[in-house]
Write a structure and sequence with these properties.
globular, three-stranded mixed beta sheet, about 140 residues, alpha+beta, single chain, five-stranded antiparallel beta sheet, 3 helices
Length: about 140
């Protein structure tokens, strides 16, 4: 009888354990030719947020020669998009020229490219179910 109860308890807890293992993890590997400054990344979980709302998560990483890694963990399955920039002068802000063009390298998830502005949600978004890794080239 004790064995049967223990088996039933194990079955009842199994779905919870399986769900926690399925939590999303996104790793971005940024390639830079520099070893100065920081990379700022903002992660969005909807087109509305990506278009001007608040990110679901953000991170800043000190640049290392070669590849700098930023990881977001414990995310529910869903669609996400990321915006990032390489803060060369480490002032915490993306710099622009007088015409509004960025003067520091930037990138989007999927290495998406924008047209006269940021890459669109449809180009930058991707599905997360489990672990995802993207190699990002800052431009």
């Amino acid at each position: 009888m004790k064995t049967l109860i223990a088996a039933a308890a194990l079955l009842l807890t199994a779905p919870t354990a399986a769900f926690s293992q399925d939590a999303g993890k996104i790793t971005f590997e940024f390639t830079t030719g520099s070893s100065t400054g920081t990379i700022h990344a903002a992660l969005f979980d909807s087109a509305a947020a990506y278009g001007g709302g608040s990110p679901v998560a953000s991170a800043v990483a000190r640049v290392e020669r070669g590849v700098t890694v930023i990881t977001f963990e414990d995310l529910p399955p869903g669609d996400y998009a990321m915006r990032s920039f390489h803060d060369w002068d480490d002032d915490g802000e993306m710099d622009f020229n007088p015409f509004g063009m960025p003067t520091e390298p930037y990138a989007f998830s999927n290495n998406a490219v924008g047209n006269m502005g940021p890459a669109s949600w449809s180009r930058a978004s991707f599905r997360v179910e489990g672990a995802v890794t993207q190699a990002i080239e800052l431009k």
